[in-house]
Design goal:
By secondary structure, the chain is mainly alpha-helical. The chain has two helices and no strands.
Length: about 180
């Protein structure tokens, strides 16, 4: 009987040793898995920070572009007022030219002078029309850049939302062994 108890004690002791080794091995695996998850969370946090910085940069760029668009609109308004002023001047000169046509013999030199002014006014109008076309092209280019920036920002927000949903799903999936 003494032999049986000693053998039983040895078997129980070996069983406890085996249980300790099994638990130690399981905890080692769990620690490694936790460390890998912490690395993943750290990487995702760094990516989120990078995206946040990128969004801030794009916000500043958009604000600069908005300011430039406002400046261009102000310039366009000024140019439109200048064109109206030139048209009024042309209409005034045309009325003066019509009044002077009745007195051609006396005012031939005055008519030639007015024709030179009209030519200058037409040249100025042509230059302004070219400037307006160039301004419209610049506006279209800025709007294209703005649209591209907004598309890029929307893509970043989508990526950010995907990362947030993955981070939220990550701990929930890890809690269900």
């Amino acid at each position: 009987m003494k032999n049986f108890q000693q053998n039983l004690l040895i078997i129980v002791a070996l069983g406890l040793c085996g249980l300790c080794v099994s638990q130690w091995y399981g905890q080692t695996l769990q620690r490694n898995e936790i460390q890998a998850l912490e690395q993943t969370v750290y990487g995702k946090s760094a990516a989120i920070q990078g995206y946040t910085n990128s969004i801030r940069t794009m916000d500043r760029q958009i604000a600069q572009m908005d300011a430039r668009i406002t400046e261009l609109k102000a310039e366009a308004k000024t140019n439109a007022e200048f064109v109206i002023t030139r048209k009024r001047e042309v209409n005034r000169l045309q009325a003066a030219a019509e009044g002077l046509t009745n007195e051609i013999t006396q005012y031939e030199s005055a008519v030639e002078s007015l024709q030179g002014k009209l030519k200058d006014a037409y040249d100025a109008i042509k230059k302004q029309n070219e400037a307006m076309k160039e301004l419209a092209a610049q506006r279209d280019e800025f709007l294209t850049k703005l649209n591209d920036s907004v598309k890029d920002r929307n893509a970043i927000v989508t990526k950010y939302n995907d990362l947030v949903s993955q981070v939220q799903k990550g701990p929930a999936a890890g809690a269900k062994p």
